[in-house]
Design goal:
475 residues; alpha/beta; TIM Barrel; 8-stranded parallel barrel; two-stranded antiparallel sheet; 34% helix
Length: 475
Protein backbone atom coordinates (compact mmCIF):
# COMPACT_ATOMS: atom_id res chain seq x y z
CA UNK A 1 0.00 0.00 0.00
CA UNK A 2 1.37 3.40 -1.01
CA UNK A 3 1.39 6.13 1.59
CA UNK A 4 -0.74 9.11 0.57
CA UNK A 5 2.15 11.41 1.45
CA UNK A 6 4.57 9.58 -0.84
CA UNK A 7 5.40 11.84 -3.80
CA UNK A 8 4.70 10.39 -7.26
CA UNK A 9 7.66 9.09 -9.24
CA UNK A 10 9.36 11.50 -11.58
CA UNK A 11 8.19 11.19 -15.19
CA UNK A 12 10.70 9.49 -17.48
CA UNK A 13 12.71 11.57 -19.91
CA UNK A 14 11.40 9.40 -22.74
CA UNK A 15 8.20 7.39 -22.62
CA UNK A 16 8.63 3.93 -24.12
CA UNK A 17 5.49 1.92 -24.80
CA UNK A 18 5.68 -0.89 -27.35
CA UNK A 19 9.46 -0.55 -27.45
CA UNK A 20 9.77 -2.86 -24.44
CA UNK A 21 8.08 -5.71 -26.31
CA UNK A 22 9.89 -7.85 -28.86
CA UNK A 23 9.40 -6.59 -32.40
CA UNK A 24 6.83 -8.53 -34.42
CA UNK A 25 7.93 -9.85 -37.77
CA UNK A 26 5.96 -9.95 -40.98
CA UNK A 27 6.12 -13.74 -40.89
CA UNK A 28 4.36 -13.77 -37.52
CA UNK A 29 1.63 -11.46 -38.80
CA UNK A 30 1.24 -13.58 -41.93
CA UNK A 31 0.84 -16.74 -39.85
CA UNK A 32 -1.87 -15.09 -37.73
CA UNK A 33 -3.75 -13.94 -40.83
CA UNK A 34 -3.57 -17.42 -42.33
CA UNK A 35 -4.92 -18.88 -39.09
CA UNK A 36 -7.93 -16.56 -39.04
CA UNK A 37 -8.81 -17.25 -42.66
CA UNK A 38 -8.44 -21.02 -42.16
CA UNK A 39 -10.94 -20.88 -39.32
CA UNK A 40 -13.36 -18.92 -41.48
CA UNK A 41 -12.98 -21.38 -44.34
CA UNK A 42 -11.64 -18.85 -46.83
CA UNK A 43 -8.48 -20.91 -47.33
CA UNK A 44 -7.89 -24.62 -46.97
CA UNK A 45 -6.09 -26.30 -44.11
CA UNK A 46 -3.26 -27.26 -46.46
CA UNK A 47 -2.87 -23.80 -48.02
CA UNK A 48 0.64 -22.46 -48.36
CA UNK A 49 1.98 -19.83 -46.00
CA UNK A 50 0.80 -16.39 -47.07
CA UNK A 51 -2.33 -17.64 -48.84
CA UNK A 52 -4.50 -15.75 -46.37
CA UNK A 53 -2.75 -12.48 -47.03
CA UNK A 54 -3.14 -13.04 -50.76
CA UNK A 55 -6.88 -13.47 -50.24
CA UNK A 56 -7.06 -10.01 -48.68
CA UNK A 57 -5.40 -8.30 -51.63
CA UNK A 58 -7.92 -6.39 -53.73
CA UNK A 59 -7.45 -4.81 -57.14
CA UNK A 60 -8.63 -1.43 -58.31
CA UNK A 61 -10.49 -1.10 -61.64
CA UNK A 62 -7.11 -0.32 -63.24
CA UNK A 63 -5.67 -3.59 -61.95
CA UNK A 64 -3.48 -2.02 -59.25
CA UNK A 65 -3.13 -4.44 -56.31
CA UNK A 66 -3.93 -3.01 -52.88
CA UNK A 67 -2.39 -5.09 -50.09
CA UNK A 68 -3.87 -5.27 -46.58
CA UNK A 69 -0.59 -4.14 -44.98
CA UNK A 70 2.29 -1.94 -46.05
CA UNK A 71 5.63 -1.44 -44.32
CA UNK A 72 8.78 0.51 -45.09
CA UNK A 73 10.13 -2.50 -46.99
CA UNK A 74 7.40 -2.09 -49.60
CA UNK A 75 8.61 1.37 -50.64
CA UNK A 76 12.36 0.82 -50.40
CA UNK A 77 12.80 0.57 -54.18
CA UNK A 78 10.40 3.36 -55.17
CA UNK A 79 11.68 6.70 -56.48
CA UNK A 80 12.09 9.43 -53.86
CA UNK A 81 9.12 11.72 -53.23
CA UNK A 82 11.27 14.80 -52.67
CA UNK A 83 10.35 17.70 -50.41
CA UNK A 84 7.30 20.00 -50.45
CA UNK A 85 7.54 22.81 -52.95
CA UNK A 86 10.16 21.16 -55.16
CA UNK A 87 9.86 18.78 -58.14
CA UNK A 88 8.25 16.31 -58.40
CA UNK A 89 5.91 18.08 -55.93
CA UNK A 90 4.56 14.78 -54.58
CA UNK A 91 4.39 16.16 -51.06
CA UNK A 92 2.88 19.49 -52.06
CA UNK A 93 3.11 22.26 -54.62
CA UNK A 94 4.38 24.83 -52.08
CA UNK A 95 7.08 24.61 -49.40
CA UNK A 96 4.58 25.22 -46.59
CA UNK A 97 1.94 22.84 -47.93
CA UNK A 98 -1.65 23.43 -46.79
CA UNK A 99 -0.53 24.40 -43.26
CA UNK A 100 -0.23 26.30 -40.98
CA UNK A 101 -2.89 28.54 -42.53
CA UNK A 102 -4.93 25.61 -43.84
CA UNK A 103 -6.07 24.88 -47.36
CA UNK A 104 -8.45 27.12 -49.27
CA UNK A 105 -11.96 26.33 -47.98
CA UNK A 106 -14.10 26.63 -51.12
CA UNK A 107 -17.89 26.46 -50.91
CA UNK A 108 -20.13 25.96 -53.95
CA UNK A 109 -23.18 28.15 -54.65
CA UNK A 110 -25.70 27.33 -57.38
CA UNK A 111 -29.06 28.77 -56.30
CA UNK A 112 -30.88 30.52 -59.19
CA UNK A 113 -31.92 33.47 -56.98
CA UNK A 114 -29.08 36.07 -56.89
CA UNK A 115 -30.34 37.51 -53.60
CA UNK A 116 -30.28 34.13 -51.90
CA UNK A 117 -26.79 33.42 -53.23
CA UNK A 118 -25.56 36.83 -52.06
CA UNK A 119 -26.74 36.21 -48.50
CA UNK A 120 -25.29 32.68 -48.51
CA UNK A 121 -21.94 33.89 -49.88
CA UNK A 122 -21.59 36.54 -47.16
CA UNK A 123 -22.59 34.03 -44.46
CA UNK A 124 -19.95 31.60 -45.69
CA UNK A 125 -17.19 34.19 -45.89
CA UNK A 126 -18.02 35.47 -42.42
CA UNK A 127 -17.81 31.98 -40.94
CA UNK A 128 -14.62 30.42 -42.24
CA UNK A 129 -14.98 29.95 -46.00
CA UNK A 130 -12.04 31.48 -47.89
CA UNK A 131 -13.19 31.24 -51.53
CA UNK A 132 -16.42 30.87 -53.48
CA UNK A 133 -17.25 28.38 -56.24
CA UNK A 134 -20.06 30.09 -58.12
CA UNK A 135 -22.32 28.52 -60.74
CA UNK A 136 -23.34 31.21 -63.21
CA UNK A 137 -24.72 31.76 -66.69
CA UNK A 138 -23.78 34.91 -68.58
CA UNK A 139 -22.61 36.62 -65.41
CA UNK A 140 -25.29 39.32 -65.40
CA UNK A 141 -26.08 38.55 -61.75
CA UNK A 142 -22.48 38.90 -60.54
CA UNK A 143 -22.75 42.54 -59.32
CA UNK A 144 -25.65 41.49 -57.07
CA UNK A 145 -24.13 38.23 -55.89
CA UNK A 146 -20.67 39.68 -55.20
CA UNK A 147 -21.79 42.95 -53.64
CA UNK A 148 -19.60 43.47 -50.58
CA UNK A 149 -17.16 40.65 -51.43
CA UNK A 150 -13.50 41.70 -51.29
CA UNK A 151 -12.23 40.15 -54.51
CA UNK A 152 -8.58 40.75 -53.59
CA UNK A 153 -9.04 38.64 -50.45
CA UNK A 154 -11.71 36.06 -51.32
CA UNK A 155 -11.15 34.33 -54.69
CA UNK A 156 -14.20 33.49 -56.80
CA UNK A 157 -14.11 30.40 -59.01
CA UNK A 158 -16.68 30.63 -61.79
CA UNK A 159 -18.52 27.55 -63.03
CA UNK A 160 -20.18 27.98 -66.42
CA UNK A 161 -19.91 24.32 -67.37
CA UNK A 162 -16.63 25.05 -69.14
CA UNK A 163 -18.00 27.32 -71.86
CA UNK A 164 -17.12 30.97 -72.37
CA UNK A 165 -20.60 32.36 -71.74
CA UNK A 166 -19.52 35.91 -71.06
CA UNK A 167 -19.35 35.36 -67.30
CA UNK A 168 -15.55 35.69 -67.31
CA UNK A 169 -15.71 39.11 -68.99
CA UNK A 170 -18.50 40.12 -66.58
CA UNK A 171 -16.38 39.07 -63.60
CA UNK A 172 -13.33 40.99 -64.83
CA UNK A 173 -15.49 44.04 -65.57
CA UNK A 174 -17.07 43.93 -62.10
CA UNK A 175 -13.67 43.58 -60.47
CA UNK A 176 -12.39 46.54 -62.47
CA UNK A 177 -15.11 48.67 -60.93
CA UNK A 178 -14.44 47.73 -57.32
CA UNK A 179 -10.66 47.20 -57.19
CA UNK A 180 -8.13 49.98 -57.46
CA UNK A 181 -5.45 47.57 -58.67
CA UNK A 182 -6.55 44.97 -61.26
CA UNK A 183 -3.38 42.98 -60.57
CA UNK A 184 -4.68 42.22 -57.06
CA UNK A 185 -7.73 40.33 -58.33
CA UNK A 186 -8.01 36.68 -57.28
CA UNK A 187 -10.11 33.93 -58.80
CA UNK A 188 -10.60 31.28 -61.47
CA UNK A 189 -12.59 31.89 -64.64
CA UNK A 190 -13.52 28.24 -65.15
CA UNK A 191 -12.95 27.93 -68.91
CA UNK A 192 -12.79 24.28 -69.95
CA UNK A 193 -13.89 23.49 -73.53
CA UNK A 194 -12.24 20.04 -73.39
CA UNK A 195 -14.20 19.08 -70.28
CA UNK A 196 -17.39 20.42 -71.86
CA UNK A 197 -16.88 18.20 -74.91
CA UNK A 198 -16.11 15.19 -72.73
CA UNK A 199 -19.38 15.61 -70.82
CA UNK A 200 -21.71 16.60 -73.66
CA UNK A 201 -20.03 15.62 -76.92
CA UNK A 202 -20.15 19.20 -78.22
CA UNK A 203 -18.28 22.38 -77.44
CA UNK A 204 -16.00 25.07 -78.83
CA UNK A 205 -12.45 24.55 -79.99
CA UNK A 206 -9.61 24.94 -77.51
CA UNK A 207 -8.32 27.95 -79.43
CA UNK A 208 -11.50 29.87 -78.58
CA UNK A 209 -10.32 30.60 -75.03
CA UNK A 210 -6.80 31.71 -75.95
CA UNK A 211 -7.51 35.47 -76.34
CA UNK A 212 -9.13 35.70 -72.91
CA UNK A 213 -6.35 33.61 -71.36
CA UNK A 214 -3.70 35.93 -72.81
CA UNK A 215 -5.57 38.95 -71.46
CA UNK A 216 -5.63 37.38 -68.00
CA UNK A 217 -1.92 36.54 -68.18
CA UNK A 218 -1.11 40.16 -69.02
CA UNK A 219 -3.44 42.03 -66.63
CA UNK A 220 -4.32 39.66 -63.78
CA UNK A 221 -1.30 37.65 -62.60
CA UNK A 222 -3.21 36.08 -59.69
CA UNK A 223 -6.17 34.82 -61.75
CA UNK A 224 -6.36 31.36 -63.34
CA UNK A 225 -8.30 31.28 -66.59
CA UNK A 226 -8.66 27.56 -67.29
CA UNK A 227 -9.92 24.62 -65.21
CA UNK A 228 -8.95 21.08 -66.16
CA UNK A 229 -12.00 19.37 -64.68
CA UNK A 230 -11.57 15.60 -64.28
CA UNK A 231 -14.56 15.19 -61.94
CA UNK A 232 -16.71 14.42 -64.96
CA UNK A 233 -14.59 11.36 -65.71
CA UNK A 234 -15.03 10.20 -62.13
CA UNK A 235 -18.78 10.85 -62.16
CA UNK A 236 -19.14 8.86 -65.39
CA UNK A 237 -17.56 5.82 -63.72
CA UNK A 238 -13.92 6.39 -64.59
CA UNK A 239 -11.22 4.93 -62.39
CA UNK A 240 -8.42 6.93 -60.75
CA UNK A 241 -5.92 6.22 -63.55
CA UNK A 242 -8.44 7.35 -66.17
CA UNK A 243 -9.09 10.54 -64.19
CA UNK A 244 -5.35 11.19 -64.06
CA UNK A 245 -4.83 10.33 -67.70
CA UNK A 246 -7.65 12.61 -68.82
CA UNK A 247 -6.45 15.56 -66.74
CA UNK A 248 -2.84 15.18 -67.88
CA UNK A 249 -3.81 14.94 -71.56
CA UNK A 250 -6.19 17.91 -71.29
CA UNK A 251 -3.56 19.96 -69.48
CA UNK A 252 -1.03 19.25 -72.24
CA UNK A 253 -3.59 20.30 -74.89
CA UNK A 254 -4.12 23.61 -73.12
CA UNK A 255 -0.36 24.15 -72.79
CA UNK A 256 0.08 23.60 -76.53
CA UNK A 257 -2.69 26.06 -77.41
CA UNK A 258 -1.34 28.74 -75.08
CA UNK A 259 2.32 28.37 -76.08
CA UNK A 260 1.38 28.36 -79.78
CA UNK A 261 -0.24 31.74 -79.07
CA UNK A 262 3.05 33.11 -77.75
CA UNK A 263 2.97 32.46 -73.99
CA UNK A 264 5.92 30.81 -72.31
CA UNK A 265 5.49 27.48 -70.52
CA UNK A 266 5.66 28.93 -66.99
CA UNK A 267 2.98 31.54 -67.73
CA UNK A 268 0.75 29.03 -69.49
CA UNK A 269 1.05 26.54 -66.62
CA UNK A 270 0.13 29.26 -64.11
CA UNK A 271 -3.19 29.81 -65.90
CA UNK A 272 -4.33 26.22 -65.20
CA UNK A 273 -6.20 24.79 -62.23
CA UNK A 274 -6.86 21.04 -61.98
CA UNK A 275 -10.02 19.67 -60.38
CA UNK A 276 -10.26 16.12 -58.98
CA UNK A 277 -12.81 14.09 -57.06
CA UNK A 278 -12.06 13.17 -53.45
CA UNK A 279 -13.82 10.05 -52.19
CA UNK A 280 -14.34 8.32 -48.87
CA UNK A 281 -11.47 6.00 -49.74
CA UNK A 282 -8.87 7.96 -47.85
CA UNK A 283 -5.58 6.53 -49.03
CA UNK A 284 -6.46 6.18 -52.74
CA UNK A 285 -7.56 9.84 -52.72
CA UNK A 286 -4.27 10.92 -51.15
CA UNK A 287 -2.38 8.78 -53.64
CA UNK A 288 -4.29 10.19 -56.62
CA UNK A 289 -3.55 13.80 -55.74
CA UNK A 290 0.12 13.04 -55.13
CA UNK A 291 0.37 11.08 -58.38
CA UNK A 292 -1.30 13.92 -60.28
CA UNK A 293 1.38 16.34 -59.14
CA UNK A 294 4.12 13.88 -60.07
CA UNK A 295 2.64 13.41 -63.55
CA UNK A 296 2.33 17.15 -64.12
CA UNK A 297 5.90 17.66 -62.95
CA UNK A 298 6.98 15.13 -65.60
CA UNK A 299 5.06 17.12 -68.23
CA UNK A 300 6.73 20.39 -67.29
CA UNK A 301 10.12 18.71 -67.11
CA UNK A 302 9.60 17.37 -70.64
CA UNK A 303 8.79 20.95 -71.67
CA UNK A 304 12.15 22.13 -70.25
CA UNK A 305 10.37 24.00 -67.47
CA UNK A 306 10.89 21.86 -64.33
CA UNK A 307 10.76 24.95 -62.11
CA UNK A 308 7.47 26.27 -63.51
CA UNK A 309 5.74 25.29 -60.27
CA UNK A 310 3.54 22.50 -59.00
CA UNK A 311 0.06 21.63 -60.13
CA UNK A 312 -2.63 23.83 -58.54
CA UNK A 313 -5.38 21.46 -57.37
CA UNK A 314 -9.03 21.85 -56.40
CA UNK A 315 -10.39 18.68 -54.77
CA UNK A 316 -14.17 18.20 -54.67
CA UNK A 317 -15.99 15.60 -52.59
CA UNK A 318 -17.29 12.96 -54.97
CA UNK A 319 -20.86 13.56 -56.18
CA UNK A 320 -21.38 9.82 -56.73
CA UNK A 321 -20.63 8.78 -53.16
CA UNK A 322 -23.60 10.67 -51.70
CA UNK A 323 -26.81 8.88 -50.83
CA UNK A 324 -30.35 10.25 -50.85
CA UNK A 325 -31.56 7.76 -48.27
CA UNK A 326 -30.47 8.52 -44.73
CA UNK A 327 -28.25 11.40 -45.93
CA UNK A 328 -26.62 11.82 -42.53
CA UNK A 329 -24.26 9.01 -43.53
CA UNK A 330 -22.85 11.55 -45.99
CA UNK A 331 -21.40 13.44 -43.03
CA UNK A 332 -18.88 10.64 -42.51
CA UNK A 333 -18.12 10.34 -46.20
CA UNK A 334 -17.60 14.07 -46.61
CA UNK A 335 -15.33 14.26 -43.57
CA UNK A 336 -13.08 11.49 -44.85
CA UNK A 337 -13.01 12.95 -48.35
CA UNK A 338 -12.17 16.44 -47.07
CA UNK A 339 -9.46 15.12 -44.78
CA UNK A 340 -7.91 13.03 -47.57
CA UNK A 341 -7.98 15.98 -49.96
CA UNK A 342 -6.26 18.27 -47.46
CA UNK A 343 -3.65 15.73 -46.41
CA UNK A 344 -3.14 14.83 -50.06
CA UNK A 345 -2.00 18.40 -50.69
CA UNK A 346 -4.95 19.95 -52.55
CA UNK A 347 -4.75 23.74 -52.64
CA UNK A 348 -8.52 24.20 -52.48
CA UNK A 349 -11.06 21.75 -51.04
CA UNK A 350 -14.84 21.65 -51.43
CA UNK A 351 -16.91 19.44 -49.12
CA UNK A 352 -20.47 19.13 -50.37
CA UNK A 353 -23.31 19.58 -47.84
CA UNK A 354 -24.58 16.22 -46.63
CA UNK A 355 -28.00 16.82 -48.21
CA UNK A 356 -26.64 17.89 -51.61
CA UNK A 357 -28.10 14.78 -53.27
CA UNK A 358 -31.61 15.87 -52.23
CA UNK A 359 -31.54 19.22 -54.02
CA UNK A 360 -31.06 22.68 -52.53
CA UNK A 361 -29.05 22.49 -49.31
CA UNK A 362 -30.17 24.02 -46.03
CA UNK A 363 -28.18 26.63 -44.06
CA UNK A 364 -27.52 23.96 -41.43
CA UNK A 365 -25.99 21.50 -43.89
CA UNK A 366 -23.88 24.27 -45.42
CA UNK A 367 -22.61 25.24 -41.97
CA UNK A 368 -21.69 21.64 -41.22
CA UNK A 369 -19.87 21.39 -44.57
CA UNK A 370 -17.68 24.42 -43.92
CA UNK A 371 -17.05 23.44 -40.31
CA UNK A 372 -15.80 20.05 -41.48
CA UNK A 373 -12.65 21.75 -42.76
CA UNK A 374 -11.91 23.35 -39.44
CA UNK A 375 -12.39 20.11 -37.54
CA UNK A 376 -9.58 18.43 -39.49
CA UNK A 377 -7.25 21.38 -40.07
CA UNK A 378 -7.67 24.13 -37.48
CA UNK A 379 -5.22 24.46 -34.61
CA UNK A 380 -4.61 27.15 -31.96
CA UNK A 381 -1.99 29.78 -32.75
CA UNK A 382 0.07 29.24 -29.61
CA UNK A 383 1.28 25.66 -29.85
CA UNK A 384 4.59 23.92 -29.48
CA UNK A 385 6.79 24.33 -32.53
CA UNK A 386 6.96 20.59 -33.17
CA UNK A 387 3.16 20.51 -33.51
CA UNK A 388 2.75 23.40 -35.94
CA UNK A 389 2.69 21.21 -39.05
CA UNK A 390 0.33 18.58 -37.69
CA UNK A 391 -1.26 17.85 -41.06
CA UNK A 392 2.14 17.53 -42.72
CA UNK A 393 3.08 14.94 -40.11
CA UNK A 394 -0.11 13.04 -40.84
CA UNK A 395 0.77 12.99 -44.53
CA UNK A 396 4.28 11.80 -43.77
CA UNK A 397 2.81 9.04 -41.66
CA UNK A 398 0.95 7.76 -44.70
CA UNK A 399 4.00 7.68 -46.96
CA UNK A 400 4.51 4.00 -46.33
CA UNK A 401 0.96 3.23 -47.39
CA UNK A 402 0.56 5.77 -50.15
CA UNK A 403 3.84 5.58 -52.00
CA UNK A 404 3.25 1.97 -52.85
CA UNK A 405 -0.24 2.76 -54.13
CA UNK A 406 0.20 5.83 -56.27
CA UNK A 407 -1.80 5.16 -59.45
CA UNK A 408 0.45 4.61 -62.44
CA UNK A 409 -0.71 5.53 -65.93
CA UNK A 410 0.94 3.05 -68.34
CA UNK A 411 2.76 4.51 -71.34
CA UNK A 412 0.17 3.09 -73.73
CA UNK A 413 -2.54 4.60 -75.92
CA UNK A 414 -5.75 4.04 -73.99
CA UNK A 415 -8.02 6.63 -75.58
CA UNK A 416 -11.27 7.36 -73.82
CA UNK A 417 -13.17 6.67 -77.04
CA UNK A 418 -16.56 6.19 -75.50
CA UNK A 419 -18.45 8.58 -73.26
CA UNK A 420 -20.58 7.29 -70.42
CA UNK A 421 -23.96 9.00 -70.13
CA UNK A 422 -26.77 8.99 -67.61
CA UNK A 423 -24.44 9.28 -64.63
CA UNK A 424 -25.69 12.67 -63.48
CA UNK A 425 -27.37 11.25 -60.39
CA UNK A 426 -25.87 10.02 -57.13
CA UNK A 427 -25.22 6.30 -57.00
CA UNK A 428 -26.95 4.61 -54.09
CA UNK A 429 -24.73 2.46 -51.87
CA UNK A 430 -25.40 -1.26 -51.71
CA UNK A 431 -26.51 -0.90 -48.11
CA UNK A 432 -28.07 1.97 -46.24
CA UNK A 433 -26.72 2.50 -42.75
CA UNK A 434 -29.42 3.19 -40.17
CA UNK A 435 -29.47 3.24 -36.42
CA UNK A 436 -30.60 0.03 -34.70
CA UNK A 437 -34.30 -0.07 -33.94
CA UNK A 438 -35.28 2.50 -36.56
CA UNK A 439 -37.58 1.41 -39.32
CA UNK A 440 -38.55 3.22 -42.48
CA UNK A 441 -38.86 6.95 -41.90
CA UNK A 442 -39.04 6.75 -38.10
CA UNK A 443 -36.79 9.10 -36.22
CA UNK A 444 -35.95 8.93 -32.55
CA UNK A 445 -35.53 12.12 -30.47
CA UNK A 446 -31.94 12.75 -29.44
CA UNK A 447 -30.98 14.47 -26.20
CA UNK A 448 -28.28 17.02 -26.95
CA UNK A 449 -26.10 17.82 -23.97
CA UNK A 450 -24.97 21.39 -23.47
CA UNK A 451 -21.40 22.04 -22.39
CA UNK A 452 -19.90 24.75 -20.29
CA UNK A 453 -16.26 25.40 -19.51
CA UNK A 454 -15.06 24.86 -15.97
CA UNK A 455 -13.93 28.48 -15.93
CA UNK A 456 -14.72 31.65 -17.93
CA UNK A 457 -13.72 31.48 -21.59
CA UNK A 458 -12.46 35.06 -21.78
CA UNK A 459 -10.04 36.58 -22.36
CA UNK A 460 -9.08 34.62 -25.48
CA UNK A 461 -7.35 35.87 -28.59
CA UNK A 462 -9.13 35.34 -31.94
CA UNK A 463 -8.30 31.95 -33.40
CA UNK A 464 -7.08 30.57 -30.07
CA UNK A 465 -8.54 27.36 -28.66
CA UNK A 466 -8.80 26.62 -24.95
CA UNK A 467 -7.43 23.38 -23.56
CA UNK A 468 -9.42 23.16 -20.33
CA UNK A 469 -11.61 20.50 -18.82
CA UNK A 470 -15.32 20.73 -19.55
CA UNK A 471 -18.24 19.62 -17.49
CA UNK A 472 -21.60 18.39 -18.81
CA UNK A 473 -24.61 20.53 -18.17
CA UNK A 474 -28.17 19.30 -18.45
CA UNK A 475 -29.48 22.79 -18.98
Amino acid sequence: MVDADTPPPAPPDELVLAGEFPAATREQWTALVDGVLRKSGRIGSDAEAGAGVEKLVRRTPEGIPVAPLYTAADVADLPPVGVPGRPPFVRGATPDGPVPDGWDVRQRHDDPDPGVVHDAVLADLENGVTSIWLATGDGSELPTVLDGVLLDLAPVALDTGGADTGAADAYLAHAGGVLADPAALLGTLGLDPIGLRARTGVGPDVASIVPLAKRVAADHPLVRAIVVDAVGVHAAGGADAQELGFSTAAGVAYLRALTDAGLDIATAARLLEFRYAATDEQFPTIAKLRAARRLWARVLSACDAPDAGGQHQHAVSSPTMLTRRDPYVNLLRGTIAGFAAGVGGADAVTVAPFDAALGASTPFSRRVARNTHHQVAERPERVLSQHVVLVDHQALGTDTLVRGREPVVPDERHALGQRAVGADHPVEPPQVVMSPGIRGRQRVPVLVMGWRAAEPLLPVRPGERLHRPVQPSRG
